[in-house]
From TrEMBL:
Membrane topology per record: Multi-pass membrane protein
Source lineage: Bacteria, Bacillati, Actinomycetota, Actinomycetes, Kitasatosporales
Species of provenance: Streptomyces yanii
Keyword Membrane: yes
Transmembrane segments: 97-115, 149-167, 173-190, 202-223, 269-288, 343-360
Protein's name according to its UniProt entry: Phosphatidate cytidylyltransferase
Length: 361
């Protein structure tokens, strides 16, 4: 999720009173101000001799033949016209909504089709998303920080981790995670030792952050009603994001975490919680076997919290790297990692709660 999705951008405008907004004199006077202010007449200096002649004409009472009468005596300077403040700007979304909606619908169609037709195809979709996400993350780390996390062992181990989680559950996921971390340590030994600790630390972090958390989606799918569980997980996360965006864009005034993500608001968080709890109650009642509506309320609350924390976590990473998006692969969204930011930490939360509520099979 991008930063702009939680609140409205600050509108530009003039501050102060109309007198304070009048055009300043001197070098700061620009073309915009010139359109609103009438210039003062410029008159050349009059010699002293002309002033003496003018005084003599005044004493003689003559009006004709007067010399040296300064023209500014009979003219009054024009008062500057105060500028009217521009009309308030309408709130606008911080991303291309048409592209975002189009890409979102396309991805949703691919996911739903693969999810309910052949489970193995959906496992392949997860593995591809993991590999692309690892590529984006390691590329940004190298570009912005000079950190060379080994991509090859991460990509192979990440895909194997997803398959192991689907086939062998949590035990298989942990074993694959350990082997992937070991492969990162060994692979990096082929290069000079400078920066070894930094690179392998980033590699182990990437292995945990992307493929290991994504493995819980595969574990959700392994249950008898796996497609319904995965669909519930996806729906709640998307609804939470949508509620935060809609409420924050319309009513957002109080910043949630201005130092991390200035676009997110407390009102947006309330919207995420409300939307996710309603969606959770509906999903648990109609999609999950033996589920009840009150379990859905708790599930929706937990999803809103984990999705928000996941979004803030990636915002911290991007701020540290000095970038806005992890990639440009998805128009209107950014990169794959910009869409996985709230999904990844939410997957283990949904898996755990569903196991507690209705069991693992």
């Amino acid at each position: 999720m991008n930063d702009s999705s939680w609140g409205a951008p600050q509108g530009a405008g003039y501050g102060g009173t109309p007198e304070m907004r009048a055009a300043p004199a001197g070098p700061a006077y620009d073309v915009h101000d010139a359109q609103h202010t009438r210039p003062m007449p410029i008159v050349p200096d009059v010699p002293d001799a002309g002033r003496d002649a003018d005084d003599r004409d005044d004493r003689n009472g003559g009006a004709s033949g007067r010399r040296g009468v300064p023209p500014y005596r009979d003219e009054k300077p024009q008062e500057p016209m105060s500028t009217a403040p521009p009309p308030p700007q309408k709130k606008r979304a911080g991303r291309d909504l048409r592209a975002a909606i189009g890409v979102g619908v396309g991805l949703g169609a691919v996911i739903v089709a693969s999810l309910f037709i052949v489970k193995a195809v959906f496992i392949g979709v997860i593995a591809i998303a993991v590999v692309v996400g690892l590529w984006e993350l390691t590329s940004r780390l190298q570009e912005r920080k000079g950190i060379k996390a080994p991509l090859v062992p991460l990509a192979i181990g990440g895909a194997a981790m997803v398959v192991a989680g689907y086939m062998r559950g949590a035990e298989g996921a942990w074993v694959a995670m350990a082997l992937t971390a070991l492969a990162v340590l060994v692979w990096r030994m082929a290069e000079p030792p400078e920066g070894y600790l930094r690179d392998v630390t980033a590699g182990v972090f990437a292995a945990f952050y992307v493929p290991f958390l994504a493995t819980f989606v595969a574990m959700l799918l392994s249950a008898d009603d796996g497609p319904q569980r995965v669909l519930t997980f996806l729906l709640l996360t998307v609804v939470s994001d949508t509620g935060a965006y809609a409420v924050g864009w319309r009513f957002g005034k109080h910043k949630l975490a201005p130092r991390i993500s200035p676009g997110k608001t407390r009102e947006g968080l309330f919207g995420a919680v409300a939307f996710a709890m309603v969606a959770g109650a509906l999903c648990m009642e109609f999609l999950i076997d033996d589920g009840t509506w009150w379990q859905g309320l708790l599930l929706g609350l937990a999803v809103a919290a984990s999705a928000t924390l996941g979004d803030l976590g990636e915002s911290m990473i991007k701020r540290d790297l000095g970038i806005k998006d992890m990639g440009t692969l998805l128009p209107g969204h950014g990169g794959i990692m910009d869409r996985l930011d709230s999904l990844l930490p939410t997957a283990p939360v949904v898996w755990l709660l569903l196991v507690l509520f209705v069991g693992s099979s």
